[in-house]
Amino acid sequence: MNDLLLPIGKLKIGLLEQILPKSSHLDTTVIVGPKVGEDATVIDFGSTYLVIKTDPITFATDEIGWYLVCVNSNDLATMGATPKWLLVTILLPENKTTEKLVGDIMDQITNACQHFNISLCGGHTEVTYGLDRPIVVGQMLGEVAKDKLITSSSAQEGDDLILTKGLGIEATSIIARERESDLLENFSSDWVNRAKKYLTDPGISVLEEARIAINTGGVHAMHDPTEGGVSTAIHELAHAADVGAIIWEEKLLISEMTEYLCQEFGIDPLGVISSGALLIASDPDKSNRILLSLAEQNIPSTIIGRLLNPTAGVWLQKKDGQRQPLPIFETDEITKIF
């Protein structure tokens, strides 16, 4: 290891591999420990597995409570678990925090928990030195039957890779909320409000599509694209399962609004925060059934690629047929708006 400064965003996969504890250091009740590409940890809870995730909200400020609940519960849903309990740490900036700000954040968290039938069980709140915006950290717990657990490492060579809803859903809402005044110079308030509402429509929660896919059958693995976007999430999934992948650019789902906002701010939609999308590695014989089940609930989805032998690498096939390595984004593209 060296003393070079690290960029904003997730740590590189190689560095994470170096610093994560080895499985031999873990208690025997730890079924899934810290591993690149796995969305949560899994503990033997007796008759069921306890699935636990912690994740902060660092980019968004408006509606931060809704982001918190969705982002943490998504990671449990990708492992087949039902989110049930939430603890929250709220760190607030000095000289900027009012009672109204604290109350608004708590109302957002409480409303989101009620919407998704999650119990807010406790946590910690403080005004913290050195912050310029609120930072909210969640710890979500849930349960899954032992025979229903899904892990990223269970993806298989030959699986189809399904993407739901599309690239940059979360980013669309963040951009509209954080750069609202800039956008209103060229767009109507109705247009900007529609972009802001991407938070709930199409929404950054994937609980429903994860449930549908699991109930339909044929799901080998699921993964939730957050920081670094869909592109980085594909790399994480491939790394966890020790597979390669080919992604077809022409099949990637993206709305016109998201595509425009990305162009406006010089953002690559493949590398922008994308909660609301769900990656599903599925048995090719069951993929069309999953797509149909999702369509019946008005959830867009498509097969964007296929998992390959690990020696094949991870590739993006461009619309002109040329192949290039699928990029990994060390710093999420959303940082370009701040």
Distance between the termini: 30 Å
Q: How does the overall form come out from the CA principal axes?
A: globular
Query: Strand order within the widest sheet?
Result: 8-10-7-11-9-12-13
Binned, the helix content reads 25-40%
Number of strands: 13
In quaternary terms, these chains amount to: single chain
The CATH architecture term of the largest domain is Alpha-Beta Complex
Structural class: alpha+beta
Layout: helices, strands, pairs:
Blueprint: H1 13-19, E1 30-32, E2 41-44, E3 48-57, H2 64-77, E4 82-93, H3 99-115, E5 119-128, E6 135-145, E7 160-164, H4 169-178, H5 180-183, H6 189-196, H7 207-216, E8 219-223, H8 229-241, E9 244-248, H9 256-264, E10 278-282, H10 287-296, E11 301-308, E12 314-317, E13 323-325
Helix pairs in contact: 2-3, 4-6, 4-9, 7-10
Question: Can you give a write-up of this model?
Answer:
The chain is α+β, with helices and mostly antiparallel strands. Helix 2 runs parallel beside helix 3 and helix 4 crosses helix 6 (189-196). The chain has helices spanning 13-19, 64-77, 99-115, 169-178, 180-183, 189-196, 207-216, 229-241, 256-264, 287-296; strands at residues 30-32, 41-44, 48-57, 82-93, 119-128, 135-145, 160-164, 219-223, 244-248, 278-282, 301-308, 314-317, 323-325. The longest helix has 17 residues, at 99-115. The strands form two sheets. Strands 8-10-7-11-9-12-13 form a seven-stranded mixed sheet, sandwiched between helices. A six-stranded mixed sheet has the order 1-2-3-6-4-5, with helices on one face. The model has no long low-confidence stretch (mean pLDDT 95). The protein has two domains: 13-145, PurM-like, N-terminal domain (60s Ribosomal Protein L30, Chain: A, 2-Layer Sandwich); 152-337, Alpha-Beta Complex (Phosphoribosyl-aminoimidazole Synthetase, Chain A, domain 2), CATH 3.90.650.
